[in-house]
Amino acid sequence: MDRKKRISELRERALEIRRDILLMNHAAGSGHPGGALSSADIVACLFFDEMRHDPKRPMLDDRDRFVLSKGHSCQVLYAALAASGYFSKDEYKGLRRINSMLQGHPDRLKTPGVEFNSGSLAQGFSASLGMALGARYQGKEIRVYTVLGDGELNEGQCWEAFMFGAHYKLDNVLAIIDYNKLQSDDYNSNIMALEPLAEKLTSFGWNVLEINGHDIEEILDAFKEARHTIGVPSVIVAHTVKGKGVSFMENHPKWHGSLAPNAEELKIALGELTAELTGKSGEGEEDE
Amino acid sequence: MNDISLREAFGRALVKAGEEREDFVVFDADVAGGTCTNFFREAFPDRFFQCGIAEQNMFSLAAGFSTMGITPVVTAYGVFAAMRAIEQARNSIAYPNFNVKIVASHLGLDTGPDGPTHQSMEDIAIYRSIANFTVLAPGDPVEMPGAVSAMLNHKGPLYMRTGRSPVPSVLGGDERFEIGKGKIVRAGTDVAIIATGVMLHRAYGAATILGEEGIDAMVVNMSSIKPIDRALIIECAEKTGAVVTAEDHNRFGGLGSAVAEILAETLPTPMRMVAIDDTFAESGEPALLAEKYGISIEDIRRMAKEVIDAKA
Questions:
Q1: B63 contact residues in A (CB cutoff 8 A)
Q2: Which domain CATH number covers A87?
Q3: Which residue of A140, A158, B19, B127 has the lowest C-beta tally within 10 Å?
Q4: Are A133 and B95 in contact (CB < 8 Å)?
Q5: Full-model pTM
Q6: Among A78-92, A147-161, A272-286, B230-244, which is the least confidently predicted range?
Q7: Is the dihedral of CA A138, A140, A143, A147 positive or negative?
Q8: Would residue A257 count as lying in a domain?
């Protein structure tokens, strides 16, 4: 496919995901919109370009695996799964409500396409390394993708996992850090300083790629480079903006969670998202 | 044959199982010599994964690994398996209902000289309270191969106790191990002693002495703690009218609690619990610790007499 067209389509997918994040967040009346919005471009590129998967056969043996280790941002995962066709968008209205397939954090036994019950931070990352090791042991040619939060890196288990990945040379795993600089209560730098992050990861033996996590071209290029890096695991430090795409949510700690836009805020937010895409892509985008 | 420990019996059984089936691997946190998975490592180096001293990562790794259709048998000392990495056991393994087997050595006062940091006396209570987990504590080395086989055939999260110190075997070698079933290993009518793990041989020893004193004590091996053999517990209570439980574990939340939960709702029966009395112990030889902290053969004998007096 023509690269320009491909990028334009992925931008539209990211918009669709962001819009759905807000719609389901509004319907639930709570959730974690900030970190879902910051990872939307990365997740759109994974589901609609990078990963081998088939929504019609969610348990396909040789599918690539995706683990949203920052499980609280599950709205981005649910939006990507629904947009892919794993389930109907009608399910959005059940998010965080009783008798629903969409739990407050991902549940593989309830939601088609979910690979792991993440939400307790660091565990999804370790599990994705286990999947990668298991795949290699079984001779399966699959790749495992995992998205981590920056606040998640406070967990010591993450660093146990970084050591493990390097020790076992798990080049079939790609970790992506959604580095939006904000965690639950405040900026990372005020809670637990992470810098110099890239240097730390390099010293742990990982191939580190640093990108703008909202630039589709940079995301695709980094995925490609990681795929061609042999004998060492890769991690992308994706610089992002928490709440990306919605002016009043961007870089604001209060939109981590557990909060949802009211009807008026939702209207403003959806309008801003559409305008942003129209401005950047030069193509018209109909409002829904 | 000299007495061997439950952990050694486990290590040997794992090698034998490894020869018979290829559907499992072993994860270790740098304690293979302690848990006796070193035998497996030597026999099947390609099926053994060293995870370093990082139990939390190891448990979540095992969860992910299991999704590829191979069962990880994850081994650690009891305190780390049941406490350091317990939240990973709950959220990475139990909640998604993955096929991961956790096997712990170094349990209770049987741990001996390593002292209280390593004497896990909470693990049964902890694992018993986590949904989806099956909990086993085989009673002697003879029972271990059957337990390992049953563990590998079982689908879902499972926690199993072994033991550090050599223990005498009480059981015959030809018995089938069945999850959810206990077994009467000595018939009796005056009192039923229900024991688990390394306490089985002490229960048997106490019953022998009681027999010489004219008391007819039944001994039950309760190596499946969850699910527990509800019908057998009720049957024991009906037949004897007096129950003693025996475990190398804190008195809160372990085997005694599990038995009491059933009898309280079905057939309230005079009971005594032989267990560690909610205290941290100390370093020492297991037999001496058992005497000092109330889980010896003599303690079982005393409690049996006391509960028999109580039923009248």
A1: 116, 123, 126-127, 130
A2: 3.40.50.970
A3: B19
A4: no
A5: 0.96
A6: A272-286
A7: negative
A8: yes
